[in-house]
Design a protein that fits this description.
The protein has one domain: 3-Layer(aba) Sandwich (Rossmann fold). 36% of the residues lie in helices and 23% in strands. The chain has a 7-stranded mixed sheet with strand order 3-2-1-4-5-7-6.
Length: 214
């Protein structure tokens, strides 16, 4: 899938609802304030970066895919876009108030190292999202190697993603999920408003927490 087609999906009614629902979960987890610095790791075409910038955050997006970064630069003025590997982020410790990554680390070899890097460059909080193997989306898009934009992704359970943070300087780890019915039907939208995010069956799992400094 090319960058333009991928990004265009977020302009469809279903894509917009899913994107906004996932972003809302991450934003609640970060509780970032306008003007604070946020790093979006694995930013891809920059949809989540642009969404965060619209909330008044000072955003940097990093991704290893030059084609997708070119698209992001063309569609996200005012955001710093950099090439980089999630396993060796080109930033000093505690460079950003917050670190965000949505369904990107599941495509990275050595997710544990990527998680450690996300924690390292955070000064306050992080919210990192994975695709959930205990979800209806996995049954539809994730089996047998995945299909479409999900091809090659690793899908995890809540216990597995929590384990990726073992031994890291973090506290107050919290796992929440969202997009329980990815159809985006009226019933799916209504259900999203009443199902607790603590239930680990949504399409995306977001692990948030605080970075311990010193």
């Amino acid at each position: 899938m090319n960058a333009a087609d991928y990004d265009a999906w977020y302009a469809t009614p279903r894509g917009r609802w899913i994107g906004e629902t996932e972003y809302a979960l991450a934003a609640r987890s970060l509780a970032a304030q306008p003007g604070e610095r946020l790093l979006d790791v694995g930013c891809g075409t920059g949809w989540f970066s642009r969404r965060a910038a619209a909330d008044g955050l000072t955003v940097t997006g990093v991704d290893p895919n030059a084609e997708w970064l070119a698209y992001a630069r063309a569609h996200g003025p005012g955001i710093a876009w950099l090439g980089g590997d999630a396993r060796a982020l080109p930033f000093a410790d505690a460079s950003f108030d917050h670190v965000l990554s949505m369904a990107a680390l599941c495509f990275v070899d050595d997710e544990r190292q990527a998680v450690a890097e996300c924690v390292r460059v955070a000064r306050r909080r992080f919210a990192l999202g994975w695709l959930n193997r205990a979800s209806l989306l996995y049954l539809d898009k994730g089996r047998r190697g995945g299909s479409g934009a999900y091809r090659g992704a690793r899908w995890h359970t809540a216990r597995e993603v929590r384990a990726l943070f073992a031994g890291l300087p973090v506290r107050h780890l919290c796992v929440r999920s969202a997009v329980f019915l990815p159809s985006a039907s009226g019933f799916a939208r209504a259900l999203e408003c009443v199902v607790p995010g603590a239930l680990p069956w949504g399409s995306v799992l977001v692990v948030s927490g605080d970075r311990l400094l010193g």
